[in-house]
Amino acid sequence: MVQKTFFTKMKQCVFRFAKFITKQIKFRIIPKSLLYRFVLIILLPLILLQTILFVFFYERHWNTVSRRLALDISGEIQTIADYIVHQNPTMPEIDLFLKKVQSNLWLDVSFIPNARLEQQNVVYEGSVFHLASALLALTYPVDMKELSNQSQQISLQLSNGVLKTIVPRKRFFSSTVHVFVIWMIGSSILLFWIAFLFMKNQIRSIERLSKASELFGTGHDVSFKPSGATEVRQAGYSFILMKNRIQKYLSERTTMLAGVSHDLRTPLTRMKLQLSMMPSDETTQDLLADVSEMEQMLNGYLAFARGEGKEVPQPINLDELVLQIVEKQRKLGQKINFHFEENICISGRLGEISRAITNILTNAHRYAKRTSVSLGIREKMARIVIDDNGPGIPQNKQQEVFKAFYRLDASRNKATGGVGLGMTITRDIVLSHGGDVSLSKSPLGGLRVILDFPILVADEL
Fold first, then answer.
1. Are 416 and 422 contacting, i.e. CB atoms less than 8 angstroms apart?
2. What's the pLDDT tens digit per position in 249-262?
3. Strongest mean pLDDT among 47-51, 365-369, 445-449
4. pTM to 2 decimals?
């Protein structure tokens, strides 16, 4: 029972560890880019395959070949030594025999009669490991030392002298395996580079589609031609159909609103004319005020519903634009402190961005006595921060003010002007440029409005 509980706990620990490793691989190792994920899909199996082949084939093959070459050399040296010891030849016969050996076996062999070995040492390391191991089979005392990187000297102590053999490296070391490994790695790198270029070319069409979607979402006129694989082309054609439907919808909405504007303005104008011709009394003045309010609401609604209109995006020097708006507001009596960074450029529709900033400053002028404006760059976004010392907006209603025709209580009621579309229009303009609007409490005690615009110049696709 105790053993079963122990194995159960071990199983749980292994499962938790595997789950932890999986999360680390998923969130830290796997790249976010689609291109590099493709690269990882290609690279990991390639590395795994090469490792397996090297460990289980190339290394084993190299060891086998090197061992057999070493055994051949040790056998040849043993044969030469046995001939000199057991056949007891004369020195001329030994010299003749060694000349034949040198010409046929690629061994530089010499015999020193009546000599003794100074030392007996064999080093078992590096590329001579198999050769040193094979020399253990010799029945004579042996000494091996490296003459150069290209040869080894093997000395045997015989009964009548010392037999010295210089073995060239190519006799005991097979370079074919290493050449094959180099070719294998080189070809793998070449194939991987070709696959990488192909993948990069396929990803480029997806990036172009993403760029076109981003530009269209910020109000730019996009000319996009689908390319790439079948699935990417299908997504591109779907994007074009969606773009055409949206543009058609916006065009029809604008046309409809133009007609509604004409139809509604005509009876309102007649009503104002008839009321102006009637005797001026309290009832007439109330009716004129109602008609004026209706006309103001109609103008505000039409301006909101028309949205972007036909204004073309263009490069805008934002610091110069905000400075011009601030100067206009100062001429109207608004007290504004303006701090800005120079040369902040964005891409957008000049009239709309000017209107969005003016809406916020007009609200601040209406409800506050002091306003502060700052312009700078934050995280690759052009940020306009507008603070005032007015009554502000409660935190639970800061998102409500972006709703169309929404008005706050007495601090911002109908008597103060407006129909509840200023913040709505401002937010739509900023969002259509790929930016964002946020509200918070100002250090001055009132409302803080933050307008973020992307620093973006439209590229031709």
1. no
2. 777 776 776 677 66
3. 445-449
4. 0.51
pLDDT at 305: 58
Task: State the pLDDT at residue 373.
Answer: 93
Give the pLDDT of residue 200.
Answer: 82
Predicted local confidence at residue 7, as pLDDT = 43
Mean of the pLDDT values across residues 322-351? 88
